[in-house]
Amino acid sequence: MARGAGKQNGGEGFTLGGTSVAPGTRAIVDLPISNLYDHTPVTMTVQVVNGRRPGPRLFVCAALHGDEINGVEVIRRLLREPVLEDLAGTLMAIPIVNVFGFLAGSRYLPDRRDLNRSFPGSPNGSLAGRLAHVFLREILERATHGIDLHTAAIHRANYPQIRANLDDEETLRLARAFGVDVVINAGERDGSLRQQAAKRHIPVLVYEAGEALRFEESSIVAGVKGVKGVMQALGMLPPGTVPAAAEPILARSSTWVRAPIGGILRTDVPLGRHVEAGERLGIVGDPYGVNEVPVVTRTAGLVIGCTHLPSVNAGDALFHIVDVTGVKADAVALDAADIVAPDSPDNEAIQAFEAHEQSAMYD
Q1: What's the rounded Cα separation, in Å, for the pair 37 and 41?
Q2: Per-residue DSSP letters for 131-157?
Q3: Total structural domains in the chain?
Q4: How much is the pLDDT for 248?
Q5: Quick check: 11 and 52 in contact, CB under 8 A?
Q6: Mean pLDDT, residues 253-262
Q7: Strand, coil or helix: what is 129?
Q8: From CA 36, how far away is CA 240, in angstroms rounded?
Q9: 90 and 29 in one domain?
């Protein structure tokens, strides 16, 4: 029996935020969070689709980082899929978790806290902590499975990929069902939603694709197909909804290639390209064409992330490469290029990672 089967739903009423959703119906539920300065209420809005037949309870969420908006469109398209009329179980769709960041076009909450470093949160803590607490209490603890939709940080792009704990058989099965080319065995980051899900034995996939503040059609299409593939694998959608997925690359280590000098970057390789050790990925030079230094990778692998800014400083993370060696990619290493608030506790972790970055293997 799949893990979480004891919490099946559908075929019976489902209640969220005081709203009861009958089998075969859907409802939009507003979970109160706070007020804006002008007393305008802010809510976390959830669309609940309750199936006619029993099955898992799946949450699909986006915009934990308010500027990562590809997932917002993935969920909008998912909710318009006619196949949901034949849903088994319950779908909880939360297209915009971090409403404050989404409205401001920012990764963060107004206090510059990162929501995905603030779990489990507290009902009496910071704004980020309170929002995390509401999500954990109302969504995560009602779910049997979850999918968390992300993009790269601002001015960066990610090749479509799944990050998950592949040491868990059920999670690995669902990661394969998502159907993207790359699946990374990734550790849980302190304070993240996925870490809290792991503590509750709830399998969660993180889908990373595209860049912040942009809709990227190919990433959105892959995301919609992937979510439906997972729902099919869970028995929530009928067989044949999504064609069988090809076997992905299972990546277990990760490294960043950094700028050797400051200057202007010219990129040679696109996302999704397999590169060999010693291969040139680009060139950093001055604006006058006098001093040019090649950017060379020390390791072979697949390029899954890159910067979109041509102006770089020495040491900037330029290209993210994964390969199939190692055991599990370090969570901090995977996100080493993310923008970090000046007072974030992540600074210490990232500094510790960079001090040991000569190795591409992360246990």
Answers
A1: 9
A2: HHHHHHHHTGGG-SEEEEEE-PPTTEE
A3: 2
A4: 96
A5: yes
A6: 96
A7: helix
A8: 46
A9: yes
Sign (positive or negative) of CA dihedral 252, 205, 159, 316: negative
Q: Residue 260: which residues within 8 A CB-CB, separation 6 or more?
A: 284, 293, 294, 295, 314
Residue 4, pLDDT > 80, answer no
Written as six digits, the tokens of 326 are 């190692």
What are the distances in angstroms from CA 113 to CA 10, 141, 205?
36, 23, 23
Taking residues 176-187, report their average pLDDT.
96
Supply the pTM of this predicted model.
0.90
Distance (Å, whole) CA 141 – CA 202? 9
Is 360 a domain residue?
Answer: no
Residues 175, 278, single domain; the answer is no
**Among the listed residues 264, 350, 268, 335, the one whose alpha carbon sits nearest the alpha carbon of residue 305:** 335
Q: Which token pair is 232?
A: 């099919």
The CATH number of whichever domain residue 114 belongs to comes to 3.40.630.10
Q: Are residues 186 and 260 in the same domain?
A: no
Same domain for 63 and 156, yes or no, is: yes
CB-neighbour burial class of residue 248 (10 A; exposed 0-12, middle 13-18, buried 19+): middle
* Together in a domain, 124 and 95: yes
- pLDDT, tens only, 5-39: 446 676 689 999 999 999 999 999 999 999 999 99
Q: What is the pLDDT of residues 259-306, one digit of tens each?
A: 999 999 999 999 999 999 999 999 999 999 999 999 999 999 999 999
120 upstream amide cis, omega within 30 of 0? yes
